[in-house]
What does this fold into?
Amino acid sequence: MSVSVVVVSYNVRDHLVRCLEAVVDRGHEVVVVDNASTDGTPELVQERFPSVRLVELPENRGFGAGNNAGMAAATGDWFLLLNADAWPVGDAVDRLAAFGNEHPEAAVVGPRLRNPDGSLQRSVRGFPTVWRLATEYLFLRKLAPRTRALNAFYGARFDHESVREADWLYGACLLVRRAATQEVGLFDEDFFLFSEETDWCYRFREAGWKVLFYPGAEVVHVGGASHGGRMFRENVRGHLRFLAKHRGQREAERARRLLLLGARLRSVLFRGERGETYREAARWLASGSAAALLESPR
It folds into this structure.
């Protein structure tokens, strides 16, 4: 079964080169979707990687929308959705595809992620609830880092050494079965950045498919290259949108109040630019109800 590698790029030209060098001319179709970059990315792809299929979008409509455009253009039985700041190690793509083909119940397969220094990047996640968000944003998980009760949001400290079924997997690299997308649909484009893969995995699982973590393939992921870690507000917006969609507006409103408390706490604990990021998020969270915030412009 064939694999199409889909990479969405937005002003990460230098990282994209490393990414494409790892996947081009490996026997797989490669599609790059450029979300209206201003750093010369389209010209770079055309000049250095002529075999790559380039899709240029007129504006940045978000990570999910970019991937949807790439999947619409791709021809493979599997889509390997790969961040522009990530690259497979060795034959990781083939390993993922072989594992997926052996597990017809899997809609999504994710590899083990590594940081550039070789350390583990934890990628197994639990679906957000108000309690799970509290364990993260109020630092409760630090009290007992090995307990499931306080660490379910981060996969309960799963060791990332064995195959397991997951709620959802971090979206830096996901192998997704085309047949599953034809049943469940593509990314929900209402999620601009963050939580789009959470929503997608939730929908796959609700339809009876499985999301599997496979440590036999590894991918290096830089992390935050396209947004520099500056989009905390979009992160919490993603939590609110997921909960409103799947748990209802009342649960989303409870989460808004919890996240407001967490942002205010962090704005006190952290200084400088990081502290200002949390203060800005707190001001936004305090400016209206969850329903109103989800209708507000980014």
